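Hi support team,

I'm opening this ticket because the web form for multi-chain structure prediction keeps timing out on my end. I have pasted the exact lines I submitted so you can reproduce it. The total is 534 residues across two entries, so I didn't expect it to be a heavy job. Is there a limit I'm missing, or should I split the entries? Thanks in advance, R.K.
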Amino acid sequence: MTKYRLIVLVTFLGGLYFFFRFFLPPHYGGDYLISKQTWVSQVLNVMGAVAVGLGVINIGMVYGRRVVRKEKEWPESLALLIAFVTTLVFGFGDMVYRDQNTIWNAVYEDIIFSGIFTSLGTAVFSLLAFYITQAAFRAFRVRSTEAALIMASALLIMLGALPIPVLENVIPVWLGEFRTWILTGVNVGVQRAVLLGAGTAGLIMAVRMWFSLDRSAFGGRGAGA
Amino acid sequence: MTPDTPRRTVLDFIANLDRRFVYFLTAVVMLIPIVSKLEFRPPMMLQAEKLFNYVEDLAREPNKRVVMISLDWGPQTAPELRPATLAFLKHVMYRRIPVVVLTLLNDGRGFTEVVPPEAAKVVEDARRAEGVPANEIEVLYGRDWINLGYRFGFSDAIRGMAGNLIEYVRSDTKRKPLEEYEIMRNVKGADSFSLMVEVTGSVGIFPAWLQWFKQTRTMRFALGCTSISVPESYTYLDSGQLVGLFEGITGAAAYERLLSERLGLSPSRDTFQAMTTQMFGQGLIVLLVIVGNVAYFMLQRRKARESTT
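Hello R.K., no limit was hit. The queue was backed up. Here is the completed structure from your submission:
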């Protein structure tokens, strides 16, 4: 059996389990399949762990090669590898000496997680505030009726949610009610339409994956190719 | 300036503000409340109040079922979602409702270890101030709360925990079997919980909880989300699947206000200040949009006038 056929078979059997788990009535095998859920979950966890392992090897190969051969952007690759190995080593150390005051816990929790990872993550995300302000200023221009509608509703929703004390008596009550109407009326209808569309697309995608019709999963090969 | 060079007026400057100027203005405006420690009083938010009242109802039940909170957020959305998590944990711990803490995101693992003890400390201080007997002050790990840490597998982990949590998770972050903890004595699967609170800024996690964690008994969901994902959350409010909602930092601040006014718990000043800072940012956006449009219209009128003459 070729590698391609093996993947197609395993994918089909995996999909078959979830299909019957949901569609079989309880007394016709549905209960039995549900009782095997924990086992199936553990199998999927193991597969996920293998995928993580592959990712680690991949990072080592791609960025390690760049550093060894001094290819373009090798200092950045070296920084990535140092950060990766340091986090890995101290992460394992923190796991082994959990709830103890060792150097492993101090370095991992206080320096790597709280000091570097959290601060950098928050700082990078906070840049959004600047980009959103700039984008809103540029994009919200009343150039057409549609743009006017979008801008008016966005402005009124934002104004209705601003609890600025000096504006409490200035902003009329109807603004708050209008905000609620937009969010609970117009918005809910639109969101449901989007969700329905996305759900239908997801279902089609799932069927294509189940029957291995999606050629991208096989690098261009497959029944649909 | 030669006679052919177009004249740049104040209107031109405003309508085409340099992006670096907008960035600078944003930084200055948002620094004002941070530097001056300015705090606005949070507004009353209907959805936050609904969740608050629901927890109060749970607290009145004779056999309190466990609640679950999933901290599915990382450093990126922590400024908005950490206050919501903290406010909720303070409430359930104060009302002695047992709470199970976990995360489905690797980024959230560190926060599951930091935020609950922070909430416990506020509750213990409040009990001390109220003169509660010494043996009833402490919020005990294993009895009042437990940390299941990072659960790998996303929707599959949710399915596994909904069926049989003890069998699926097996041990907590201290690597002790779950059966050894008092809080887990009556916990089996999703049926054992009275409320599941999802706190996230990521798309798709909450619908996964809705799809896979609902079981046969009455169990309600609540959601803490970032301001940007509020519109999506209203779909679930409208369908009645959510009992309440933290609408971004403003929702968290409104919940803190309720904790302070109705239970006497000291409010988190950081939450109030974060809300005020966000308000300043939103106010600036509103102002810039209005000013930009006025300048744009006046320029259009000027161009129309010039083309006719």
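A quick check on our side: The longest strand of chain B covers residues 193-200. Let us know if the file doesn't open in your viewer.
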